[in-house]
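Table 4 source record.
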Amino acid sequence: MHLVKRAFLTCLCTAIFPWALSANQSWLNPAGKSEAAPQSQSDKTEVHFETTGLGEMRDEDGTRLPFTAYRASDGIKLTAIHGTFHSPLDAMNYFEKQIGKATKIISRGETKDKSGKVIAERAEVILPAKTGASESVSAVLWTSGVNFHEIVSESQEDNLQLERKIPN
């Protein structure tokens, strides 16, 4: 019963305060051994991610969005949100809706197929602070076909490291 209450509270808190979870968790492979995060030249230290919770939330329009909460080895908490839509167009429309909430767009790009049709989009943004939070948060968002992904935390570098670990 205690575990059920904890899972419900984690889900409820994360649904209300998704930004409250920040990055830098230790990522475990199926064998339970630590797996190194891919490194770029700008990465100073390897960050591992630990899953701390799973749940589902609904946005202001009622869209159901499963999420995974992580804690990074550097102490940052992150929230990875995933939505599967009826069509790639619906996923891109949701992406646009989320981009509209940003206070700043750091970068934005798209992937096109051979005919020039946009098949995926990606952006790095700053989102406004939520009630009770002192600072804004970083996010990376992308689409892949019918899938929408968003990672939110206080650390853009942790967001990018976790993004590399999430399958499209």
